[in-house]
Design brief:
With about 240 residues, the chain is mainly α. The chain has two domains: about 170 residues, no CATH class; about 70 residues, no CATH class. Helices cover about 55% and strands about 10% of the residues. A hairpin with a 5-residue loop joins strand 3 and strand 4. The two termini are about 40 Å apart.
């Protein structure tokens, strides 16, 4: 997934820089939002990124679901990759990732280019601002997104696999148990909830070690990740 995200960012960088070359540079006082919308079709970029990510997510779910069967001593070939839950997950999730990622890229571009335009910068200076945004995307954002979304897909597949197995009734949160475990994940280690329940619901506020809190306002948390770059996993709790 990491390399696919980087390729998408590379394509987007080429598109945006190409538009800068062929579109008159806005003058100070120009409405940034209108100009950026004119030169970049984010809807098309969303669709293209979703198209690329969908089969990758399905592959992660298929592989992890089979491993989930093996964890409970069942034949991995029995894992059904083509049921409705999985089809819905990878299609919707790929679209959401694409939109979330591109919305953030657009936000960063707007901020950078707005500053440059208001400062009366040349097209070469504006290009440098675009390079700055996509440089960070290629190095830092792509890695963080890939790690987080692979973990999310693996947790979904674990839960789906254990549900299909019929021999698992709960799931246990398990951390890496090293010095890098964060103050929020550490107190979750060993926590068990029913297989179909969430550890947290969207909108919850969780207090970790030292009284620090995290607002879980992105989505429900049925399993890892709790946050970006989370390294936690789930373990099955078998029916007694």
């Amino acid at each position: 997934m990491l390399e696919s995200l980087r390729r998408q960012f590379e394509v987007q960088r080429t598109i945006v820089l190409g538009k800068l070359d062929t579109t008159p540079t806005p003058t100070k006082g120009y409405t940034r939002k209108d100009w950026l919308s004119d030169v970049v079709d984010w809807g098309d970029l969303d669709k293209e990124m979703a198209r690329v990510l969908a089969p990758l997510l399905l592959g992660i779910v298929a592989e992890t679901g089979k491993c989930a069967f093996e964890q409970v001593n069942l034949d991995p070939s029995l894992f059904n990759t083509f049921n409705q839950a999985i089809q819905t997950y990878y299609q919707l999730r790929s679209s959401r990732i694409a939109k979330d990622v591109n919305d953030e890229t657009e936000k960063q571009l707007r901020a950078e280019l707005s500053q440059g335009i208001q400062a009366g910068e040349t097209s070469f200076e504006l290009r440098a601002r675009v390079e700055k945004v996509f440089g960070a995307a290629l190095i830092y954002r792509a890695d963080r997104i890939a790690r987080t979304e692979v973990t999310r897909a693996q947790s979904f597949a674990d839960i789906e696999g254990w549900t299909q197995s019929g021999v698992v009734e709960g799931k246990e949160w398990f951390t890496a148990q090293d010095e890098r475990v964060c103050k929020f994940c550490r107190p979750l280690n060993g926590k068990v909830v029913p297989l179909t329940k969430n550890f947290f619901s969207n909108g919850d506020v969780f207090e970790g070690d030292g009284g620090k809190t995290i607002n879980l306002d992105y989505d429900d948390v049925p399993g890892a990740p709790l946050h970006g770059n989370c390294r936690c996993v789930l373990l099955p709790v078998l029916v007694e």
